[in-house]
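Please, structure for the following, as tokens.
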Amino acid sequence: MKPYLSIEKLTQRFPDGAGSDLTVFENASFGVEKGEFVVILGHSGCGKSTIMNILAGLADPTSGVVVMDGKEVKGPSLDRGVVFQNYSLLPWLTTLKNVTFGVKARYPDWSKAKVEEHATKFLAMVGLEGDVIHRKPSQLSGGMRQRVSIARAFANHPKLLLLDEPFGALDALTRGTIQDELLKIWGQMEQTVFMITHDIDEAILLADRILLMTNGPQARVAESVEITIPRPRKRTEIVEHPNYYAIRNHLVQFLGKRSKELAGQLTNDGETNRPEYVRIDKTEAPDDPEDKQPALRAVNS
């Protein structure tokens, strides 16, 4: 049975300016289950944002296909919501109207009162209430603007939510607060989420699985790492879980070393390039007690 979101043999090539083509990634094949939160990690130039744009319907691949809920993805759709790093709010509209704008398009038969009630509810879920919802984006902080973007995306009830480094421009404290709010809303909505980030700790906190890409050009999705830390997760507590540093060290090793070593390994014609599944769980009893290794812990330097 195919997953809810199926990416099959996705390849992207661009002209290199010298009469030839540059292969960004080739034959990428992976799936995302309904309600799953998947994060993709990789160095700049590996094609993460290109994959995101293809999933959003904002770009066409050179070859390959994306199927969601049994239908091929072609062009933008209200079934796919996107939250960008730069907020992308309409500056002439208030906070509330930035959200109602999409809700009205999604539910054209709703009354004005119902649209505003729905939008106000989702703004409250990200901590925006009172007179602040009548301010324009120029009157909001960066963190508030990103909250509006998240509320707008969730309020449209998309089948797939795409997050393109949504917290990259925020300070650490604001980023942490909005991450918590994102997890809270995601838990209530059971939304399918695909997210790009460069932050390993953020990926571990948020994701069910992390896809790891080799360096570009000629990149590929090499591994799919399961996050074996139970939910709900709190940033102050997950570091105490025995799997946390084992998973983190694996991700650091891949991005720091193996992503370069595995780069440029193109597949043969007709081959499907599926990531290797990785599961790290220090809580499972080993078959041989003598093989048991202590859980990895942070060491003060």
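The chain is about 30% helix and 20% strand. Residues 127 and 213 are 34 Å apart (CA to CA).
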